[in-house]
Amino acid sequence: MKIALIGTTAACVLGFRASLIRALAGQGHEVYAFALDYDEASREKVRLLGAIPVDYRFSRSGLDALRDIIDTCRLSRLLKEIGPDLVFTYFSKPVIFGTFAAFFAGVKRRVAMLEGLGYSFTEQPDREPARARLVRFIQVLLYRLAFPMLERLIMLNPDDYKDLVGRYRLRVREVTVLGGIGVDLSLFPFAEPPSDPVRFLFVGRLLAEKGIREFSCAARIVRQRYPDARFIVLGEIDRANPGALKEQDLHQLIAEGTVEYPGQVGNVRTWIEQASVFVLPSYREGVPRSTQEAMAVGRPVITTDVPGCRETVVNGVNGFLVPPWSARAVAEKMIFFLENRKAIASMGRESRRLACEKFDAREIDRRLIQYLTCPPDDACKKKRATEVPT
Fold first, then answer.
1. Which of 48, 94, 271, 299: disulfide with 294, CB 3.0–4.6 Å?
2. Packing angle between helix 327-339 and helix 212-225, nearest 10 degrees?
3. Is the separation of the CB atoms in 10 and 39 below 8 Å?
């Protein structure tokens, strides 16, 4: 088959689709990997995976209707030239406009995956901004138009299905809840967690909805009682995002010794191995990849009881679920690990066990490939239905 994968950035192709591309290419499929920002280095890396890199244009965000229509027409012409048997789109705007483009290009099979519902569907601690309501209204309208064109919609957690498809009664032929995109367990092997000193690790963009404020406030609370505890933050400041942590606030956290900030790093696994406990007080996720990686390495997890995050923790077994927006609740669980250091190792082992059971990328890619290579009316549909809840 000719299969076109349409996403956003080259980093996402290489970071999230690499194992899928290798598996598809290994089965003899011709894979075209679309991205918005290839350079020569990233193109070569994609070729080494076995795919053909394809440049296309699209605004990743914003509400410029005319530009989106023009870009959709250009993408449709590009798909006509390639002539894929199937188009697989992922992330919100590619799912909408990539599906439109594939439909108008005459591509017969169209599959989409939403790896989270995004900011406009994320409950906030304060009054919901009017812009978020507007964006959600427009997104739902566009999903209502795009979803009937799909052969299958894949979502990562059941809450996303309920809050989008169920709540707005969207028509789609078939919906599958995948349960996470998975992690290559061989690249994130188990390592015994250190507990002296206890290090708490946050990984993610430094945005309010990722819980960076709750993490830093919890760190301040904990350090009053346990000044030797350490708090490490990995990730970049999204300066264009109004919800981003301000640089002056970050510098103050560093100056007062509340957090350590090496910034955005390339060797995340090394930092996870040096950590004792992984903390992500996010407001909503698909199923967070960073948490899956931490679980694979064998780290207990403190995260929020919200869509996506709750899929990664069995409360009291491999970590703790806390209410969203509560720095004090996060601090209480941090203090638990400081006062019960043996639990770091025992819960870390449970995280590894759960990662092997739920988030093995090889198994998840195998299921994804079945969805892509077997049409719904194919004889393998019955077999798939017994494996994954729909």
1. 299
2. 50
3. yes
| Predicted confidence (pLDDT) per residue in 199-247, tens digit | 999 999 999 999 999 999 999 999 999 999 999 999 988 776 767 888 8
pLDDT beyond 90 at 4: yes
Query: Considering only CA atoms, which of 133, 106, 109, 105 is closest in space to residue 121?
Result: 133
**Tokens (6 digits) for 352:** 């590894």
Residue at 278: amino acid letter: F
d(Cα 78, Cα 69) in Å, to the nearest integer?
14
Quick one: 9 and 35 in the same domain? yes
Q: Which of 4, 6, 8 is nearest to 32 (CA)?
A: 4
351 and 376 together in one domain: no
Q: What is the three-class DSSP state of 54?
A: strand
| Helices and strands of the chain, counted as H and E runs | 16, 13
Same domain, 223 and 342: yes
Cα–Cα distance measured from residue 247 to residue 237, given in angstroms and rounded to the nearest whole number:
8
DSSP annotation string for 185-204: TTTS---PPP-SS-EEEEES
Confidence of residue 266 (pLDDT cuts 50, 70, 90): confident
Which residue range(s) make up the domain with 247? 199-358
pLDDT, tens digit (0-9, with 9 covering 90-100), for 110-138: 999 999 998 889 988 888 888 888 989 99
Are 221 and 138 found together in one domain?
no
What is each CA distance from 141 to 130, 146, 322, in whole angstroms?
A: 17, 9, 33
Looking at the fold, whether 352 and 226 belong to one and the same domain comes out as yes
Give the CA distances from residue 212 to residues 56, 198, 251, in Å, rounded to whole numbers and listed in that order: 33, 19, 14
Rounded to whole angstroms, the Cα distance separating 272 from 296 reads 10
Residue 194 covered by a domain: no
What's the pTM value of the predicted model, to 2 decimals? 0.90
Nearest to 354 by CA among 303, 389, 390, 306: 303
